[in-house]
Design goal:
alpha+beta; binds zinc ion; about 425 residues; 12 helices; 11 strands; extended; 4 domains
Length: about 425
């Protein structure tokens, strides 16, 4: 198949017309994107989006617009920094810049660089903008953001030291897991050496918490390698004072009613009834979710049941009619939810009602949440917008490019 050197008659005209049409539509799209950014800004104010039980502004936008997380992230990013980049946003509003162009700027550029990048974006493609942003000198101080949980590690000549920071509820799960591995190691040790050997020189050292930790890691690793069975969660011990009805985690702090219900939904929990700090009995252990039921649940629905969430990992089986109140561990009474929405439900910020195969989720105002996007055919004319010429896309001469450098700030000391 030879390619003729002369273009076929009409091809030029056809592609020309197609590009014109693209320019027209993209111009309108840029204007519409600016209007969507305005809506997202309003959603962001006073955290309005949070009423829906969405986990972030981004997930709320992705859900309602039926778009990917990365597209929603771009919208949210531009919305959050619209005040810092008024010229770039104006370009979007006039149709001369695309959302993707403005989004890379909003995501990475420092304050005060609006004019620089608004000018550059008239000619630069998205990837060229990215390169330009990477050339900009990094600000010295990143705003410190203290994450809720963290794992940090320092090493010296001989050891590595981790510092693990977890909220109490998760820490209790960790404690319980560690303890169960320590118990197993101690039992093994006793089987092998008996009580009488404990003082002898020959016996290996008595298992420590560090040994239990490594056993926990190895077992987790093994299990993960086999099949990632996420059926069983660990036993959590809860102490419940019969007089005050105050529950507390084993060797841990007091827990709220919501936390207790959250924990008892899909973890094995032993409740120890106590009076004046002394145990007087042990309650029934929560039935774990049997593996078969767990599989059936996953087959019925592979994601978190809350509309717009879509989480697939670490899902909990929530009892719609709580097991503490007699709700059975059966398919019709169970629904998979992500830990975030599970907590939200037990804190009464969203409600999940059954039956399991057709749950209804409502927000804090009682409005039913539904999973589909709000998109519908337009009823009005498209916005007035000039055709979008797009960046010139010419080969960038990076050696002549002067990256944006913030003016040095006067320091008082
Ligand atoms: Zn639950
Ligand atoms: Zn969820």
């Amino acid at each position: 198949m030879a390619i003729t050197s002369e273009p076929r008659v009409g091809q030029d005209a056809r592609i020309g017309a197609l590009f014109e049409r693209l320019a027209e539509l993209q111009g309108q799209r840029n204007v519409i994107d600016a209007q969507i950014v305005d809506v997202v800004r309003e959603l962001e104010q006073d955290d309005l989006w949070a009423i829906t039980g969405a986990r972030s502004l981004e997930t709320c936008v992705a859900w309602k617009t039926g778009s990917s997380h990365s597209h929603a992230k771009a919208l949210a990013e531009v919305a959050r920094r619209a005040d810092v980049f008024p010229r770039c946003v104006a370009g979007l509003r006039e149709g001369s810049l695309s959302l993707d162009q403005v989004a890379v700027i909003a995501e990475k550029a420092v304050e005060g660089s609006d004019e620089h990048y608004a000018g550059l974006a008239q000619a630069a493609t998205v990837s060229q903008l990215r390169t330009a942003l990477n050339l900009a000198p990094r600000p010295d101080t990143e705003p410190p953001s203290e994450p809720e949980r963290s794992v940090t590690k320092i090493t010296d000549d001989e050891f590595a030291i981790w510092r693990v920071k977890l909220p109490h509820v998760e820490a209790a799960v960790f404690d319980a897991a560690l303890q169960s591995h320590l118990d197993a190691l101690v039992a093994e040790w006793k089987r092998a050496h008996g009580e009488r050997d404990s003082a002898s020189e020959q016996a290996p050292p008595f298992p420590t918490v560090a040994d239990a930790f490594m056993r926990l890691v190895e077992h987790g690793w093994d299990a993960d390698a086999v099949a990632r069975p996420h059926g069983h969660r660990t036993t959590v011990v809860v102490h419940l004072d019969v007089e005050s009805q105050i529950g507390s985690l084993h060797l841990g702090p007091a827990i709220s009613e919501a936390e207790r219900q959250y924990l008892t939904c899909d973890a094995r929990v032993e409740t120890w009834f106590e009076r004046d700090g002394k145990p007087i009995g042990v309650g029934r252990e929560t039935r774990e979710i049997p593996r078969r039921i767990r599989r059936a649940l996953e087959r019925r629905q592979s994601t978190c049941a809350v509309p717009g969430c879509g989480a697939t990992r670490g899902l909990h089986a929530h009892h719609i009619w709580h097991w503490e109140k007699g709700g059975p561990t059966e398919l019709w009474n169970l629904v998979l939810v992500c830990p975030f929405h599970h907590r939200l439900h037990h804190r009464k910020l969203i409600t999940i009602s059954g039956p399991g195969h057709a749950v209804t989720v409502t927000d804090v105002n009682g409005r039913t949440l539904d999973g589909s996007s709000v998109a519908r055919p337009p009823t009005g004319p498209p916005p007035q917008a000039p055709p979008y010429a797009g960046p010139t896309g010419e080969r960038a001469q990076w050696k002549w490019y002067v990256p944006f450098t913030p003016r040095p700030q006067r320091s008082d000391n």
